[in-house]
Amino acid sequence: MNEFELIRIASRIFSTDRQDVIVGPGEDDCAVVEINGKNIVLTADVLHEKTDFPEGIKAEEIGHLSLAVNLSDLAAMGAKPLYFIHTVTLSRKWINEFEDMMKGMKKLAERYGVAVVGGDIDFGDELSIAGFAVGVADRFVTQSGAKPGEFVCLTGPLGKAQLSLEQLFSGMSREKIAYPESLFTPEPRVREGMEVAKHAGAMTDISDSLAISLHLIAEKSRVGIEIRSDLLPLDHLTPYVGEEKALELFLYSGGDYELVYTSNECTHGFVIGRVVEEKGVRIDGEEIEFRGYMHKPD
């Protein structure tokens, strides 16, 4: 089973009809609950050394990533991040690097006004960091609000992280890969998400792939999405790979912390297509696969 199948199981078990739970388990990037008339946005994520930390990553960058992945989920719903709690499982090789990890986390937290208010520290065979983030939103945006006729927009170009990871796997040093910052210290689009939330119909982040994100929006909104290849900028990838590979990276690679949203106006980023009535997700009329980065057991 992959993570999406497991999420469906957990969502069925924990489904609730409580009035204060506005967005429940498995419905979107985050849960939303109402507390004292405010929309409180909640999310959690976990990173593991073997599957999530590229070779050569520095301790400070691990701290950055562990917070960034959670902030990206909050950004995907237009929330202002407020608080963060971490649970760190340290393996022996990382114990002396713990302080630098926390400094990396703090640096990113301060950039977005996030208070890191505690956590837990344990020891194990593999480094992992689980995080829980809390935000607030005047108007939150889900994956289910896209309407036919809206533009489909991206906040930035895609494929940089996966291109750099593949270069790293090929034997390149981290100093020579194309986009080390996209791989080691991706920037969550927090401010963009809060601005776009004022007018977007649907929105999500692209941590798994553009293809997966578009399918989630189309399925939950009960619409179709038509993408045009001539609207996809590939010039940041084509100096390193051919056009066919560049398009593959743009559509199906994970690790990019950009946002995709639907709206009648594209205020941040650029248009890549339209929401249509006919179900499915297509590029130039051809079906886009539901494919990208998915957690699976070994």
UniProtKB/TrEMBL annotation:
EC number, UniProt record: 2.7.4.16
Binding site for substrate: D52, Y293
Stored SUPFAM superfamilies: PurM C-terminal domain-like (SSF56042), PurM N-terminal domain-like (SSF55326)
Keywords from the UniProt entry: ATP-binding, Kinase, Magnesium, Metal-binding, Nucleotide-binding, Thiamine biosynthesis, Transferase
Catalytic activity of the protein: thiamine phosphate + ATP = thiamine diphosphate + ADP
Positions with a binding annotation for Mg(2+) 3: D29, D73, D205
Binding site for Mg(2+) 5: D208
Chain sites annotated for binding Mg(2+) 4: D29, T43, D73
Xref: HAMAP family: TMP_kinase (MF_02128)
Protein name per Swiss-Prot or TrEMBL: Thiamine-monophosphate kinase
Gene transcribed to yield this protein: thiL
